[in-house]
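P.,

For your records, the input lines for the assembly:
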Amino acid sequence: MPKDKAVGIQVSQVSKQFGSFQAVKDVDLTVETGSLVALLGPSGSGKSTLLRLIAGLEQPDSGRIFLTGRDATNESVRDRQIGFVFQHYALFKHLTVRKNIAFGLELRKHTKEKVRARVEELLELVQLTGLGDRYPSQLSGGQRQRVALARALAVQPQVLLLDEPFGALDAKVRKDLRSWLRKLHDEVHVTTVFVTHDQEEAMEVADQIVVMNHGKVEQIGSPAEIYDNPATPFVMSFIGPVNVLPNSSHIFQAGGLDTPHPEVFLRPHDIEIAIDPIPETVPARIDRIVHLGWEVQAEVRLEDGQVLVAHLPRDRYRDLQLEPEQQVFVRPKQARSFPLNYSI
Amino acid sequence: MSLRLPSLSFTWLTRLSWSWRFTWVYLTLILFIPIIALFLKSASLPLGRIWELATQPVAVAAYEVTFGLSLAAAALNGVFGVIIAWVLTRYDFPGKKLFDSFIDLPFALPTAVAGLTLATVYSDKGWIGQFIAPFGVQIAFTRWGVLLAMVFISLPFVVRTVEPLLLELEVEAEEAAASLGASPSETFWRVILPPILPGVLAGVAQGFSRAVGEFGSVVIISGNLPFDDLIAPVLIFERLEQYDYAGATVIGSVLLLFSLVILFVINALQNWSSRYNG
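Structure tokens returned:
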């Protein structure tokens, strides 16, 4: 079948097995040229394997992989014109920052002047001007990862692949680097796929999110689509906190929620808490109050014994003056249920 | 000759921590005094006589054989040691543990036994020697035999110094090199070899000094012909047999000085090759 040039990466019916473990199963995926896509999933979901298959670091058992329209399935890593960034940087420790970035350029036999100029350009791009003569051991984790990124970008890859690029960094650096990567992508516009298990990271950085579980794609969509319209219970519960209730639960009786599916999913911020009984509420009792910063988490126990987790803004919490053991009334603002044939 | 030490005050020793005191006393008894005694013994001769003994043609030829073959043996083990260490760290195969402990055998085997075994196997009628003899190459009782014995006894060093460094290498760095367009050979020379080079050099240095000092196996597999395959340690032994202690100590001192210089050079190379561990 003819492949569209505008498609940066096309993965078609790709499977990969390690021993008896099915890492990736019949995956189809299309990444538009110039877009920034996150592969999101728990560990063992096959997201890293899929990335390595795209890179050519693993060979698929079946299926085809197309890069910028050409069939790259049988191409070796070195011929695929990809840039790969590893979780633990994988810098060449015996080479200076400058030499690390120049590695791919020197292999391509560019002139010395050209290499030097390109390296300086990249040092500036990743904001490491002046650190070119350091060795990796003299850099912080965040700086090392930026060197790794510069090294990958130096050879002007058609596709940039990042495997948990911020996974080894501490929370603060991770946040900074995330928004920096987003800005960088807006400048460089190279087709980018990155792997993460952090849904917040995926939401913040990516144009499109591919949610994976058990080697399969659960859903592909924009961050908003994924959050607002999760396609499966797995996506619903992976992408944010969720209460899972039987459809017979007390709380749905007053509201008249009627679903044939036995399980109903309810986001904590979709539970309204009131002091006085208002229409469509059911009585409940506060079990515990947990302060999460800008939100307050209230654990409420329904009369049937079911415990729900509800989130409410601080202001609302102050207005209500909630206390443990207090009698309240709760109401689901929005709930979601899925057809039966799934597994979490 | 009696060795009179000047009456020194040792109070400085009591001001040191116990570990330091033990270090000083131990090294003094085991290393410093014997080495100093060797040089003093040589130095008790007139300078012209020392020079004469040190540079007599048979000794010079023995130095050449000893250092030349030791360096060659160390270099050979430098190459093959890396390959063996690579196999041991990168592949899993049945009997790997046994294979691994075989590497250390040259350390455990009495060197005379090693020499005898090699001389038998590599003689004209031996298991391996019989296939090489038709090509006009004789191994046992020639320089080739000396080299073989030196390779044998210094085999484990490079394997053991390189193994941990290979285990430490990130496979991801090799994958990164490939993704940047490096061929397998470019990856070896640019990514794998530089970080293990300090270990290779350390192993080569150890193997070299072991080979220079080797006596037991070489004396058996060598023809011990002066100007041909006679090594310096065997020459020293012959001098001692003739009660020529002065000749023996002078040759020994020369051997020691040369070894020190070569070890310093290898050490300097090693420091240079690990300069990035800042």
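Two observations worth noting. DSSP finds 15 helices and no strands in chain B. Chain B has a mean pLDDT of 91.

Regards
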